[in-house]
Amino acid sequence: MNAPHPIRALHGHLAVAAEPLPGASEAIGRLEASLAILDAITESALQAAHHLDRATLAGAGQRWNYLRLEDAAAKLTAAAQITETARDRLSEKLAGAR
Description:
By secondary structure, this protein is mainly alpha-helical. Helix content is 76%, strand content 0%.
């Protein structure tokens, strides 16, 4: 049941195929859509983290839960690094526009 999807097993998580950069109007649309998705995901992740914290404080958890938490933490770290790079890129752009 916890086996990875065959495509993920073959290519790994967060694998992104090389694709050409979108045009300006498409990039704006992708930025807005991605920000909306990140807002929803981060709210859900914070709520889930709160419940995980409370459950582990109460003594819940087994070895397989620990392994899943490690995997989730690694994915969140990777997403945070990509998000911070995008934030820095936008910050540099805005600083140049002043």
